[in-house]
């Protein structure tokens, strides 16, 4: 079963990477046309774009920091930026980004965070972020009459949002029934004698559930900071797209830019393609202008490079460096090397 899954991942990744150059050439007019479009952006625009991009990634640090602060753990900014880079890399490897959770837990455990806490923080951060992306994207889409989703997609929008609804429901159950989960874990642990790893997993599930419940019910001001950081993250993404569009000479109002790029971000988080490569660019360009102009694609692609692709290579190198001398299993189960 695992071999089939790895094969499926591999096929999806190879197909995505193979299709990317075709979509790039088709929708941007080729590398020379793309380079020519970028030459339109002034130095002043580039300065604003790059400063905004730095702020965009710092907001990811703020979201990690605020959730860990609820557990009295101060996350160094260097570690947070490492987490961010690795997160984008592993999320681009599989259609469902399922390597994101173990990778984040692995790195946080290396920094001294308990497995249950690391799991809870990673899950909560992802759910909060996706929830705010969907909320801002859908509300702004409803409020603006100049941005339209393709009709066949609009008809099935509730189906596309089902994974998000399932995650929220899961979080709600954990928050409502932490005592029951703890009681289940205690009952299971009385029967587990060997192997040891089974007991470790049951303890991890129990600790993660208690930590999730603590975060969701927390009145700590950092809980509010996490939500504020998530909202600012989406708005900053839209702002970067807005500045890029204006730098290229595309007259896009700020409100429309936030609607277009927040919905593009929703596609990036929910589409079943590794890294949502290609789908996000085409869909965002369609929302920008259904004519799918080359200049629009240049704007969308530039934003995706700055707010996703640029950290993939550093993320891969940082993960490989972290894995040297320690297996993922040992890190998650707290075993000595």
Could you please describe the fold and organization of this structure?
The chain has 17 helices and no strands. It has helices at residues 2-28, 31-38, 43-69, 77-91, 100-110, 115-143, 151-155, 157-160, 162-176, 178-189, 196-216, 221-248, 254-270, 279-288, 294-307, 312-323, 328-333. The protein is an all-alpha fold and 337 residues long. The protein is 77% helix and 0% strand. Helix 6 packs across helix 13, helix 12 packs across helix 13 (254-270) and helix 12 (221-248) runs antiparallel to helix 15 (294-307). It starts with a helix and ends with a helix. It has a domain at 50-73 and 115-312. The longest helix is centred in the middle third of the chain and has 29 residues, at 115-143.
What is the average of the pLDDT values? Answer: 77
Distance between the termini: 29 Å
In this structure, how is the largest beta sheet organized?
none
Strand content: under 5%
List the secondary-structure elements in sequence, H or E: HHHHHHHHHHHHHHHHH
Helical/strand content category:
mainly alpha
Basic shape: globular
Number of strands: 0
Computed over alpha carbons, the radius of gyration is 21 Å
List unreliable stretches of 5+ residues: 331-337
Percent of residues in helices comes to: over 70%
> Helix segment count?
17
Descriptive terms for the model:
337 residues, 17 helices, 0% strand, disordered C terminus
Q: TL;DR of this structure?
A:
The protein has 337 residues and is mainly alpha-helical.
Layout of strands and helices, then pairs:
Elements (H helix, E strand, L loop, with lengths): L1 H27 L2 H8 L4 H27 L7 H15 L8 H11 L4 H29 L7 H5 L1 H4 L1 H15 L1 H12 L6 H21 L4 H28 L5 H17 L8 H10 L5 H14 L4 H12 L4 H6 L4
Helix pairs in contact: 3-4, 3-6, 3-12, 4-5, 4-16, 5-6, 6-9, 6-11, 6-12, 6-13, 9-11, 10-11, 12-13, 12-15, 13-14, 14-15
């Amino acid at each position: 079963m695992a071999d089939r899954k790895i094969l499926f991942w591999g096929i999806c990744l190879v197909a995505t990477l193979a299709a990317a150059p075709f979509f790039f050439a088709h929708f941007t007019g080729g590398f020379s046309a793309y380079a020519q479009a970028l030459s339109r952006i002034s130095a002043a625009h580039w300065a604003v774009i790059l400063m905004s991009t730095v702020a965009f990634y710092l907001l990811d640090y703020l979201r990690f920091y605020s959730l860990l602060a609820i557990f009295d753990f101060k996350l160094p900014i260097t570690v947070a930026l490492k987490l961010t880079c690795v997160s984008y890399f592993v999320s681009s490897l599989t259609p469902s980004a399922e390597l994101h959770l173990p990778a984040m837990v692995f790195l946080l455990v290396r920094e001294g965070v308990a497995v249950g806490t690391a799991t809870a923080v990673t899950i909560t951060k992802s759910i909060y972020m996706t929830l705010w992306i969907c909320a801002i994207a859908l509300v702004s889409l409803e409020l603006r009459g100049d941005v339209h989703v393709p009709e066949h997609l609009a008809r099935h929008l509730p189906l596309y949002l089902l994974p998000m609804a399932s995650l929220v429901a899961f979080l709600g159950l954990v928050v409502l029934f932490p005592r029951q989960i703890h009681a289940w874990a205690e009952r299971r642990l009385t029967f587990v004698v060997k192997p040891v790893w089974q007991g470790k997993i049951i303890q991890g599930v129990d600790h993660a559930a208690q930590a999730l419940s603590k975060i969701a019910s927390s009145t700590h001001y950092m809980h509010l900071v996490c939500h504020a950081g998530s909202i600012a993250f989406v708005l900053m993404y839209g702002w970067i797209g807005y500045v890029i569009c204006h730098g290229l000479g595309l007259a896009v109002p700020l409100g429309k830019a936030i609607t277009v790029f927040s919905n593009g971000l929703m596609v990036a988080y929910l589409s079943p393609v590794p890294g949502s490569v290609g789908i996000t660019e085409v869909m965002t360009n369609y929302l920008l202008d259904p004519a799918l102009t080359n200049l629009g694609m240049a704007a969308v692609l530039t934003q995706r490079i700055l707010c996703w692709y640029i950290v993939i290579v550093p993320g891969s190198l940082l993960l490989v460096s972290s894995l040297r001398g320690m297996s993922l299993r040992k890190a998650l189960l707290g075993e000595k090397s």
